[in-house]
C-alpha cells in the first residue's frame, strides 16, 4: 500500500522534496574535490580522473529531459523511485573495491539523479497550494545549485582521511536515505496524464551533449589539435540541430520545442545559458586561485578541504537569497529579479578582479556570488512556469536544466582557456585571473541585458501555479 502523502500533508512534503534535490546535486558534484585523490588511488592521469565529474554531468544532462517527460505522465512516483534506486546502485559501485571503469559507471549512474530536480518541482506544483508551491519550487531550484557547496568540504575532508572511497561512502549513505524519503513522502501524479519518451530524440541529444561536454573538458585538444576540435564542435552543433528537427516532428517530444518560441521561455533559457557560464566561471576561478601555492607569486596554497570551506559563504548566502526571492517575487516580476541577480554576480567578478590579496576577500567574493546565484536560481522557475501548464512543469524545467548544464560546461571551458593562455612555467600568471574576471563581467552584463529585454517584452508576472 502506498504511503505517499496527499495535499493535506504539505508540511512533510516540502522538506522531503528539498532534501532529495539537495542530495542528488551534492552527490553528482562529488567528482570535483576528489579528482586528485582518484588519480592517486587508481593510478590514472588527472585527465582520466576528470571524467568522474564529466560523466556525471553528461548522464545528468541526458537523463534530465527523459525523466522530465516521464514525470509528466501517470508514473511519476515510480520514475522517481527507480531513478533513486539507480543512484544508490551507482553509489555502491563507487565504494566497492572495483577497477576504475566501474567507478566511472557508478558516477554515470549517480549523475542520472540530476534529472530529478525538475520532477521535484512538478510534485510541488501539483500537490501544494499556489503560494507555498511557488516558494518550494524556488527553494528546490536554489538547493540544486548550492548542493555543490554543501558536499564539497565534507567530501574533501573524508578523502584526506580515508581516500576517495570514504567520500563516496557518504554519497551511498545519503542517497539511500533519499530513496527511503521518496518512498515515504512523494505522492502519485494526478490522474489523467500520459507520457511517452522519444527514444530517437534522446539518442541524438545524448550524442550532441557528449561532444559539448567532451570539448569543454579537453582544453588541450583546442591548443594542440584545433582542426579536430573545430570539427567536433561543428558535429555537436549539427547533432543538436537534428535533435531540434526531430523534436519538432515528433508527436511525443522530449521537450516541447515549440514552447521555446514564447518570449518568456526563450529569454529565460538564453539568460540561463549565458548567466550559468558566468556563474560557474567565477566559482572555478576562486577555488583554483585559493589552492594555488604561494610559490607561484600569488594564491594561498589551501588544501582541498580548506578550499572547500571557502564555498560556505556561497551556500549560506545562496540559501538566504532563495528564501527571500519568493517574497520579492510578489512585488517584482521575474525578469527584473534575474537582471538584478546577474548584476550581483557581475559585482562578484569585479571584487575578485580588484581585491584578492587575502582569503577574507575571496570569502566576500564567494558570498556575493552565492547571493546572486541564489536569487537568479529562485527567480528562474517563476518566469518559465508562469506560461507553462502544470502537466508540463517537469518537462519545461528539465530543458532549462539541460541549458544550465551546457552553460556550466562553457563557463569551465572559458576559464580553462583564458588561464591556459596566460600560463607561466607551472601556473597561470596572476594577470590571467584578472582577464578571466573581466570576461566574466562582460558575460554577466550580457545576462543582465537579456533579462531587461525580457522584462520590457512584458513577461507574465503571475505566480508559477497560476498558469
TrEMBL record:
For this protein, the parts annotated as crossing the membrane are 12-36, 48-68, 80-102, 108-124, 136-159, 165-183, 195-216, 222-246, 266-286, 298-322, 334-356, 362-387, 408-427, 433-455
One GO molecular-function entry: transmembrane transporter activity
Q: Which InterPro entries is this protein grouped with?
A: MFS, MFS_dom, MFS_trans_sf
- Where located? Cell membrane
Gene3D superfamilies from the UniProt entry = MFS general substrate transporter like domains (1.20.1250.20)
- The Major facilitator superfamily (MFS) profile domain covers 12-463
Protein name, as recorded: MFS transporter
Organism, scientific name: Actinorhabdospora filicis
The organism's taxonomic lineage, starting at the top: Bacteria, Bacillati, Actinomycetota, Actinomycetes, Micromonosporales
Amino acid at each position: 500500500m502506498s504511503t505517499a502523502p496527499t495535499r493535506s500533508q504539505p508540511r512533510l512534503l516540502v522538506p522531503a522534496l528539498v532534501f532529495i534535490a539537495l542530495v542528488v546535486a551534492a552527490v553528482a558534484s562529488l567528482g570535483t574535490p576528489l579528482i586528485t585523490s582518484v588519480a592517486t588511488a587508481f593510478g590514472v592521469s588527472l585527465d582520466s580522473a576528470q571524467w568522474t565529474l564529466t560523466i556525471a554531468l553528461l548522464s545528468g544532462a541526458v537523463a534530465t529531459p527523459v525523466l522530465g517527460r516521464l514525470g509528466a505522465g501517470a508514473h511519476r512516483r515510480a520514475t522517481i523511485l527507480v531513478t533513486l534506486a539507480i543512484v544508490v546502485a551507482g553509489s555502491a559501485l563507487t565504494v566497492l573495491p572495483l577497477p576504475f571503469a566501474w567507478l566511472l559507471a557508478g558516477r554515470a549512474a549517480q549523475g542520472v539523479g540530476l534529472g530529478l530536480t525538475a520532477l521535484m518541482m512538478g510534485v510541488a506544483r501539483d500537490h501544494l497550494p499556489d503560494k507555498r508551491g511557488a516558494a518550494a519550487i524556488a527553494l528546490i531550484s536554489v538547493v540544486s545549485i548550492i548542493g555543490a557547496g554543501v558536499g564539497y568540504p565534507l567530501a574533501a575532508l573524508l578523502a584526506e582521511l580515508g581516500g576517495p572511497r570514504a567520500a563516496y561512502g557518504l554519497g551511498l549513505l545519503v542517497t539511500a536515505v533519499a530513496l527511503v524519503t521518496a518512498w515515504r513522502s512523494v505522492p502519485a501524479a494526478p490522474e489523467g496524464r500520459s507520457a511517452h519518451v522519444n527514444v530517437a530524440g534522446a539518442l541524438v541529444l545524448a550524442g550532441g551533449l557528449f561532444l559539448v561536454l567532451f570539448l569543454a573538458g579537453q582544453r588541450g585538444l583546442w591548443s594542440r589539435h584545433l582542426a579536430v576540435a573545430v570539427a567536433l564542435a561543428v558535429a555537436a552543433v549539427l547533432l543538436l540541430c537534428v535533435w531540434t528537427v526531430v523534436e519538432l516532428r515528433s508527436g511525443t517530444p522530449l521537450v516541447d520545442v515549440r514552447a521555446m518560441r514564447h518570449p518568456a521561455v526563450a529569454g529565460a533559457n538564453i539568460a540561463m545559458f549565458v548567466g550559468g557560464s558566468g556563474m560557474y566561471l567565477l566559482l572555478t576561478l576562486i577555488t583554483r586561485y585559493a589552492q594555488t601555492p604561494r610559490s607561484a607569486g600569488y594564491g594561498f596554497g589551501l588544501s582541498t578541504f580548506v578550499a572547500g570551506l571557502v564555498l560556505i559563504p556561497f551556500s549560506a548566502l545562496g540559501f538566504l537569497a532563495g528564501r527571500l526571492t519568493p517574497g520579492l517575487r510578489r512585488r517584482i516580476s521575474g525578469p527584473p529579479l534575474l537582471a538584478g541577480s546577474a548584476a550581483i554576480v557581475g559585482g562578484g567578478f569585479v571584487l575578485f578582479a580588484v581585491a584578492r590579496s587575502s582569503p577574507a576577500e575571496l570569502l566576500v567574493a564567494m558570498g556575493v556570488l552565492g547571493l546572486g546565484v541564489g536569487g537568479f536560481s529562485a527567480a528562474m522557475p517563476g518566469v518559465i512556469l508562469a506560461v507553462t501548464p502544470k502537466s508540463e512543469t517537469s518537462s519545461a524545467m528539465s530543458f532549462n536544466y539541460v541549458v544550465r548544464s551546457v552553460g556550466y560546461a562553457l563557463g569551465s571551458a572559458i576559464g580553462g582557456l583564458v588561464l591556459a593562455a596566460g600560463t607561466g612555467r607551472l601556473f597561470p600568471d596572476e594577470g590571467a585571473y584578472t582577464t578571466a574576471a573581466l570576461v566574466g563581467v562582460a558575460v554577466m552584463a550580457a545576462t543582465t541585458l537579456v533579462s531587461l529585454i525580457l522584462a520590457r517584452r512584458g513577461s507574465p508576472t503571475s505566480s508559477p501555479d497560476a498558469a
